[in-house]
What does this fold into?
Amino acid sequence: MDLNMNVDAPHSMGTTIIGVTYNGGVVLGADSRTSTGMYVANRASDKITQLTDNVYVCRSGSAADSQIVSDYVRYFLHQHTIQLGQPATVKVAANLIRLLSYSNKNMLQTGLIVGGWDKYEGGKIYGVPLGGTLVEQPFTIGGSGSSYLYGFFDQAWKEGMTKDEAEQLVVKAVSLAIARDGASGGVVRTVIINSEGVTRNFYPGDKLPLWHEELEPQNSLLDILNAPSPEPMNI
Amino acid sequence: MSSIGTGYDLSVTTFSPDGRVFQIEYAAKAVDNSGTVIGIRCKDGIVMGVEKLIASKMMLPGSNRRIHSVNRHSGMAVAGLAADGRQIVARAKSEATNYQSVYGEPIPVKELAERVASYVHLCTLYWWLRPFGCGIILGGYDRDGPQLYMVEPSGISYRYFGAAIGKGKQAAKTEIEKLKLSEMTCREGVIEVAKIIYKVHDEAKDKAFELEMSWVCDESKQQHQKVPGDLLEEAKAAARTALEEMDAD
It folds into this structure.
């Protein structure tokens, strides 16, 4: 038994985060594991945070850093919306995130994906990785789990998907990353943003596809005991 | 219209018993004594024109510009004290670049107008500052279309279809009201603005004048620029002809 778990280690979101545009809006997706070293501090965290009614951000890296940046940008955007008299654009939200990330690059360790919908540009995704770059992309992935998804997206991504196709792609991708990345896990959360508004979806473990030799999720140990082969390890 | 505010007009921080701030009103007089400046909003953009009264024959034509670009897609035409106007233009340019650096997009015209108006108003709040002696017509084209604003020395700013300040503003406003702006393109608007300025110019009181015009419209690719030379000449010729026809009656 490992009793040397450092529960005071900084909370990090190992994470897999994804942002994808589709024909009419965007889909943001993320896993839900927040770890403190090897200990899973929160297995059901919500890494997709609201900035305005129409713009959300996926957070990865240091939990504290990404929360503080989101909080500041939410505050600035709120003031901006009041002055402008209309909802802020996704571009403005992404730029504010970028300015904070870049100016404080020595102190922050957070990769963010800004996604939303506005009436001028429609659905847009902006990636703001570690150094504070700002890149507008049709889709982007981030977090430790994203390493396993580059090849997958090269093959599976296509322009002009429908809302359901895009969401299915995101859910499949996050679950693939969760299967391979130890720092990603838990449930899959998605947020769909379009002209009609925002929809949040939740995919618990038993709704996700299984990959390779993964076992079916068990609800109770008793199921194992009552199974035809009471010792599953004994093949 | 003239009234003396004896005793209550010494400072911009003093109200008169009937609720007026005389210093601001005097600043507006400075604007009324300058050459006419007009701006109109056509269906595809903005046209602004200035009646530049020439002080001396020795001045180089084209110098002493009264219309300035604030950023790529907006510009302002200034009436009144030229030096004050330069200060306001500098501030507007600075506000525009600052907005762009923070928000990552060009400043919406409405925001720019509010910031300019706030700045002008600021100088009416402290006794150690004097109000700006200029009126500004601000025209720009952003993602919400073409917009025209006017800022007065008091710091008031409104959005207009057509606006005029300076000597001939009353006559100019009457002429602008006759135009069907919502059906006019900027190309046609340039001709109309030239005609109006030539018309309201008082030959008796002021000798020579130079016409300066700018536009920001679909034809200029939503960029604020001087009206192209050939169109300007065409407009001047049309204006002179219209004047002659009027005189001939």
Q: What stands out?
A: Helices of chain B lie at 22-32, 82-103, 109-122, 169-178, 186-200, 229-248. Chain B has a mean pLDDT of 93. The CA atoms of residues 97 and 103 of chain B lie 10 Å apart.
